[in-house]
Amino acid sequence: MARIAVIGAGMGAMAAAARLAVAGHRVAVYERTETYGGAVRRFERDGFRFDTGPGLLPLPAVWRDLFVKTGREPLEHCVDLVQVDPSERHLFADGTAVSLPNASRAGVVAALEEALGAGAGQRWGDFLVRAREAWDRTRRPLLEEPLWPNWEVLAEREPYPALARRRLLRTRRAATLAEVGALELRDPRLAALLEGHALAHGLDPRAVPASAAVLPYLEHAFGLWYVRGGLRELARAVHERCTARGVAFAFGAEVTEIVEKDGRASGVGLADGSVAEADVVVAGVAPEVLERLARGSAVRGPGEVPAGRGAPSRLTVLLALRGGRPRDAVHRTVVHTQNRAAELGALFGSPAGMPTDPTVTVLRPDDPATAPDGDHEAVVLASPLPAGAADGGAGVPAAGGLTGREALDVQADRMTEAAERAVPGLRDRVLWRELRTPAAVAEATGAPGGGIPAPALAAGGGGLLHPGNATGLPGLYRVGGWSHPGGGLPHAGMSGALVAGLVVEGPEFRGSR
Question: What's the CA gap between 500 and 6, in Å, rounded?
Answer without folding.
Answer: 12
